[in-house]
């Protein structure tokens, strides 16, 4: 299937690194920035209202939250609490939406300032952290709750964050190879252990408390608290390359359709080193209880950068470093859609 160009939904004024959707509120949350470099590129978290306009999905800027000199590189959402990875720290934000009572004269004057990719009638205004930005009829406020350092390597950097199934705990991983578990919303640390020699690339928490981590040491591990349960071996029922080391790039749990008590785990494997003639990347489905591989399929020669699973567990989404997005059927790992939607690295993807 050839590439198709997707219609543009929203263009941010900064590099985008993370996305989340709040379906209950109809919000798309987009975050990123230029970091501490004095390039003039801002850092922020944008809250966008999703709506149908003339039969097509549209997005208008509802609120712009300033993150000062820190670019948000990863996000996790639990209700109205947002966990943001900024440099070596995790920042918790709480947002609320409610009906707007009416604008003051100052707000009406400010509404003339136009934000990126707004529909007619939207009136966002960028302000300092915690300020409000208005769209007709709706207003959103953001409150800073807590912040904590989550990585302690010589060049500390939080790479991934996720909530557990009931949103009472938060797991983080970064360049020092340690998993740290935190209470929500106090960010009190309850567990810490070294999961990998080197960087943690991704992690996923299952509803039974099991944690899957993948790292730059070419390992994927399953943990119960800080005890190693097993390690994944994707090539047991798949291809074997003696001269091409692969590493796990991403991991996600997904529900088995029509079997709500069962889970599958999905992982992406990419060549550990870039080669002139790159070998394919691979997508693997695993049994969510035994962690044995069910099937493995090649997923192209473009290096995969992110993985997403639909809420129903029916579809998988893959993004690449060159800007392509592909959709796969979760059960068969068959590709059903390929789109060259971006011209650069895809760092976040939602289904």
TrEMBL record:
WD repeats lie at residues 161-192. Interacts with SAR1B (GDP-bound form). Interacts with MIA2; recruits PREB to endoplasmic reticulum exit sites. It comes from Mustela putorius furo. It is found in: Endoplasmic reticulum membrane; Nucleus. It is a single-pass membrane protein. GO terms for biological process: endoplasmic reticulum to Golgi vesicle-mediated transport; protein transport; regulation of COPII vesicle coating. Keywords: Endoplasmic reticulum, ER-Golgi transport, Membrane, Protein transport, Repeat, Transmembrane, Transmembrane helix, Transport, WD repeat. Residues 104-116 have a biased composition (Basic and acidic residues). This is Prolactin regulatory element-binding protein. GO terms for molecular function: guanyl-nucleotide exchange factor activity. Belongs to the WD repeat SEC12 family. The gene is PREB. Pfam families: WD40.
């Amino acid at each position: 299937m050839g590439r198709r160009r997707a219609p543009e939904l929203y263009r941010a004024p900064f590099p985008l690194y993370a996305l989340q959707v709040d379906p209950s509120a109809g919000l798309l949350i987009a975050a990123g920035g230029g970091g501490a470099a004095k390039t003039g590129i801002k850092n922020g978290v944008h809250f966008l209202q999703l709506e149908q306009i003339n039969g097509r999905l549209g997005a208008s800027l509802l609120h712009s939250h300033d993150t000062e000199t820190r670019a948000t590189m990863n996000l996790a959402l639990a209700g109205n609490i947002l966990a943001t990875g900024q440099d070596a720290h995790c920042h918790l934000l709480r947002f609320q939406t409610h009906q707007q009572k009416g604008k003051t004269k100052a707000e009406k004057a400010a509404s003339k300032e136009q934000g990126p990719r707004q529909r007619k009638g939207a009136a966002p205004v960028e302000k300092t952290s915690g300020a409000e930005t208005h769209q007709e009829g709706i207003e959103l406020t953001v409150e800073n709750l807590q912040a904590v350092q989550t990585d302690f390597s010589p060049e500390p950097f939080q790479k991934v964050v996720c909530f557990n199934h009931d949103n009472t705990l938060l797991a983080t991983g970064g360049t020092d190879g340690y998993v740290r578990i935190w209470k929500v919303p106090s960010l009190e640390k309850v567990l810490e252990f070294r999961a990998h020699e080197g960087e943690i690339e991704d992690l996923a928490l299952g509803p039974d408390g099991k944690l899957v981590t993948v790292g730059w040491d070419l390992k994927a591990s399953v943990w119960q608290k800080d005890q190693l349960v097993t390690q994944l071996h994707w090539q047991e029922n798949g291809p074997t390359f003696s001269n091409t080391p692969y590493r796990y790039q991403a991991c996600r749990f997904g529900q088995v359709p029509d079997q709500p008590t069962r889970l599958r785990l999905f992982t992406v494997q990419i060549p550990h080193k870039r080669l002139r003639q790159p070998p394919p990347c691979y997508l693997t489905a695993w049994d969510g209880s035994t962690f044995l591989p069910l099937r493995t399929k090649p997923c192209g020669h473009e290096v995969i950068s992110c993985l997403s699973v639909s809420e129903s567990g029916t579809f998988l989404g893959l993004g690449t470093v060159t800007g392509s997005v592909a959709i796969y059927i979760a059960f068969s790992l068959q590709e059903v859609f390929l789109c060259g939607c971006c011209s650069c690295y895809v760092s976040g993807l939602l289904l």
